[in-house]
Specification:
The protein is an alpha/beta fold. It is built from eight helices and 13 strands. The strands form three sheets. Strands 1-13-12-11-2-3 form a six-stranded parallel beta sheet. Strands 7-8-10-9 form a four-stranded antiparallel beta sheet.
Length: about 270
């Protein structure tokens, strides 16, 4: 299961990460917590292990609102940032789920109308693309399938999709399986920092020092660029040439197996 890597010298094995004062773990989901489209048992157990060690755990994903609702209710996590920063969900002290949206109701309705029209344009112009199968459960963004349930599209075709979306004024970023697009001034990093401030009173500079972020794909690059402690699961290697800001350390194993590796190392150091 270990991958052979050929990354720059700036990417060091996880075992070289020095002892840290990490109090929070933010993590991507697809191909970071999951592996080959499934959630390995050791990955799920690692979430609980981190919480048991006293760390706050927040998935930060392009995943749909429907999935994020389930994660926030049922998983051993403290909150979930979803749809690339459109919202965060968390269970309040009374056990009820609270939803914090970046855009107000009217802005979300307008964005939905524009994105639906944009989806039609992309599917008509780029053969091989499809809507993500979870699109009906998305509240704020558009997800174009590029590798999940369609044959993986070549990088040039992915860039064509991104170009169409951006030309229409949308923000668009590819993940390992989708191109996510939205209208609004938010992103994974902006909403993650908002959640840290509102839930824990942690300002950006303290968050930069106390958070570990782990991910696998180009849409994680803003997080890799901002946080001091960043880890890539081994499959980040396939995007090495496309990342201007790489994670500081890398696991030996891919996906959720690499996440479990990181959790074991971090709780050992805690």
């Amino acid at each position: 299961m270990t991958l052979s890597l050929s990354l720059s010298d700036r990417l060091r094995p996880l075992a070289e990460m020095p002892p840290t004062a990490i109090r929070y773990v933010l993590c991507d989901v697809d191909d970071t917590l999951t592996h080959n489209g499934r959630l390995p048992p050791e990955s799920f157990a690692a979430l609980a292990r981190l919480q048991d060690a006293g760390l706050r755990v927040i998935p930060v994903t392009g995943g749909c609102a429907g999935w994020c609702d389930m994660m926030a209710r049922c998983w051993p996590v403290d909150a979930v940032v979803g749809e690339s920063g459109a919202f965060y969900f968390h269970r309040a002290g009374d056990g009820r789920l609270r939803r914090r949206w970046w855009l107000d109701d009217a802005a979300r309705r307008d964005a939905r109308r524009r994105l639906d029209a944009l989806a039609d344009a992309v599917l008509a112009r780029v053969p091989g693309t499809a809507l993500a199968s979870d699109q009906p459960f998305r509240a704020c963004d558009l997800a174009i399938d590029i590798a999940q349930e369609v044959p993986p599209l070549p990088p040039a075709v992915v860039e064509e999709v991104v170009g169409i979306l951006r030309a229409a004024g949308a923000t668009a970023h590819p993940s390992s399986i989708h191109v996510n697009a939205w209208f609004g001034s938010y992103g994974k990093r902006a909403m993650a920092l908002t959640a840290m401030e509102e839930l824990y009173g942690l300002g950006p500079e303290d968050a930069r020092q106390q958070v570990l972020y782990i991910g696998d794909a180009p849409n994680d690059e803003p997080m890799f660029a901002f946080f001091r402690h960043t880890v890539g699961v081994a499959n980040v290697a396939r995007f090495a040439d496309r990342l201007n800001h790489k994670p500081a350390w890398i696991t030996a194993h891919p996906g959720g197996h690499g996440f479990a590796e990181m959790a074991a190392y971090l709780t050992q150091e805690a």
